[in-house]
Fold:
Amino acid sequence: MVTISVNGKSREVQSAPSTPLLYVLHNELDVMSPQFGCGLAQCGACSVLLDGKEVRACVTPVSLAAGKEVTTIEGLPARWAKQKNLPATAAENTLHPVQEAWIEQQVPLCGFCQNGMMIKATELLETTPKPSDGEIKAAFTTSGPSAHLCRCGSYIAIMDAVRHASVMMTKKGSTI
Structure:
């Protein structure tokens, strides 16, 4: 048995330690936002944050998540509240700035890849609060195991949303 923390909640899982984290999230914990895209860490649809770093859950064994924090898009509001030293209740009725920006910029077309895109944007903005266009492009193309793929081609809207989220995150400072 492995104990992992997902979106701030400690959970015991029965799967073998070598089971991909994506399967554990879907089959045992009913966390469905990370998508099964390629199963080879090539598309990014399954991305989650593992202690703040993007990983591809389709190839990450659940054993690597033991003792670490797994964050999916459902956990982004609580993550933002915690980073800003706000009570957890502050996150209950709001979205993370990345999620807000995705909605305001009307990014999703089919939406399948958007989980991974928002996870990658969150990782980028936590390490580089005001990224240049080049840094945004690099984050989505060369900074991980492979590029994040959007079959609908919403890349321009994704870049707009990352820039918008950056502004929102720096303006909001210590409040949600």
Remarks:
- The longest strand covers residues 2-6.
- DSSP finds six helices and five strands in the chain.
- Strands lie at 2-6, 9-13, 47-50, 53-56, 69-71.
